[in-house]
Amino acid sequence: MREDDAAGQGGAAGYNIRAVDRVCDVLDALQQHPATGLSLAAIAETVSLPKSSALRYLSALEARSYVERDAEDGSYRLGLAFRPQRFDYRAALRDAVLPHLVKLRDRFEETMNFAVLDGIEVVHVEVVESERRVRLAASRGERACLHSTATGKVMAGQIPESRLRTILEQAGMPQFTADTITTVDGFLGEVKLTVERGWGIDDCENQPDGRCVAVPVDGLAVPAALSLSAPASRFASEDAQRVAHLLKKHMGPLVDAAQDVPH
Questions:
Q1: Count of CB atoms within 10 A of residue 120's CB?
Q2: CA 200 to mean position of chain CA atoms
Q3: Of 105, 151, 157, which Cα lies nearest the Cα of 125?
Q4: pLDDT at position 37, please?
Q5: Whole-prediction pTM
Q6: What is the Cα gyration radius of the chain?
Q7: Whole-number pLDDT of residue 68
Q8: What is the b/e burial string over 74-94, where b = at least 16 CB atoms within 10 angstroms of the residue's CB?
Q9: Which of 153, 166, 140 is nearest to 225 (CA)?
Q10: 23: helix, coil or strand?
Q11: DSSP for 151-208?
Q12: 52: part of which helix (H) or strand (E)?
């Protein structure tokens, strides 16, 4: 039996589950350093774990937003799940980006989406639908998978590979259409390509008749993306790069508004 799975007697309830204790130890260590955070090495030393074991715990906690990792120095801090609930960060983001999404919708005449990563899923914070009779649109608050969506691919490029693998393991990779990527290696290759070119595409992978292109929204408390979606009959895959470049050209005010939201 592995040490992390062992259970013995003890504790107020009569049982002491080792893995749960380890998680609590990690969170307690981070609680002592809310501002500066801790490095992986410091966490492993504090809770008396090998670095590899500490990383597994941290990756699982990060996937659920209990822990967040600083992209610059690699340190870990308590995540959004532990922040005061009286301030709804997503609601504030929605209010900030909505008028800019409307302007982008009017410019491109297609549905605009602003989404963030919430745990192991993509959540649509705000959606402004196209006014055309035939349109493709999710609903505000609707959730989706990383592996089958353009926004998910973009967000996957904003997080460490260890966290991404944990998300894929927990969420699974269901096949929604004949074009859905359903292998971890295949998806990691797609994420690498997405990062290199600076935009992601859902090429009829989430819905058989829908196409979507997304670009990253950097500088927020959570991985985020802006996307344009339309029926595949009206939005050809060869137009994706042109649309992505236009989105980047005109998304500045939305990005500034989102970055101004306190977190």
A1: 19
A2: 14
A3: 151
A4: 85
A5: 0.73
A6: 20
A7: 86
A8: ebbbbbbebeeeeeebbebbb
A9: 153
A10: helix
A11: HHHHHHTTS-HHHHHHHHHHH-----STT---SHHHHHHHHHHHHHHT-EEEESSSST
A12: helix 51-63
